[in-house]
Amino acid sequence: AKSPHASGACFYQADMDAAVRERRRLVSDLRQALKAGQLSLFYQPQIATGTGRLRGHEALMRWQHPSRGFVSPADFIPLAEETGLILPLGEWALRTACAAAAAEPRLGKVAVNLSPVQFRQAGLAVLVADILAETGLPPDRLELEITESTLMQDPGRTLEVLRAIKALGVSVAMDDFGTGHSSLATLRAFPFDKIKLDRSFVPEIDSNPQARAILRAVVGIGRGLGIPVLAEGVETPSELACLRDEGCAEVQGYLIGRPAPLAALSLSEPAAAA
Ligand code: C2E
Ligand code: CA
Ligand code: CA
Ligand code: CA
User: Fold this and answer.
1) Measured between alpha carbons, how far is 30 from 271 in angstroms, rounded to an integer?
2) Structure pTM?
3) Disulfide check for 248: which of 71, 77, 157, 243 has CB 3.0–4.6 Å away?
């Protein structure tokens, strides 16, 4: 008879096989997704904390799978990055967001996420320039969000690409600030126009003095460097009040507005936070 250990290992192997098959299926579905029109962009508002004025929207990818329903970008973006599919997907997102913003001035500035894989692609700055020309979006209405992992991989080349993008008049935001390993060194070395404080910091700023101290320090660093800070994931009025008191320039989160399709946005006046 098999020992419990052996049978455990056997189940584990079966689980692994199932996971591998599942992953392959998802990748092949993702390959079709763009052509099949299953991808769309949702937009989430970003507002000035002090005035409540709408500043812009972040574009967030959504995948409506025919049988699985909605697949979260947290699940399919990593797959797209591993397989290189992020290149066509990312280009589609950039073009779609720029076209939407060009057609709808009330969208304000549109912020588009860039994967590290896109940064390693030759000619990224040229692609951005082409898309701006093609859609007619003024460069100062586009912001590109990049994470620290982008910068770590090849800092010299990344700096070159960042400068080329900024030379177009496009701004660049450091996304997920505070989750990486060398955020401070990075801020000094790269020409960012905005710091996006990661949403993991925000829930406790109104209840935990340590979290509040970190917020205060990040806003202070931003002020010293002349870079405005945006806080992500703001969900309650009391968090918003803290962010306002601490001088955080912009906020984004469910309290202000959930990501929504273009047609569902209320674009007249900013909803929350006068
Ligand atoms: P991210 O860039 O940090 O985007 C912010 C995420 O926080 C979004 O998740 C947004 O829906 C969510 N969020 C916004 N406000 C709140 C809030 O108040 N509370 C909570 N709990 N969450 C909030 P989403 O849309 O699921 O996207 C997840 C991640 O997928 C993004 O994180 C980004 O890293 C990636 N992603 C999404 N779209 C794209 C894209 O077009 N290109 C690339 N490369 N990555 C993308
Ligand atoms: Ca982002
Ligand atoms: Ca983020
Ligand atoms: Ca809270």
Assistant:
1) 35
2) 0.93
3) 243
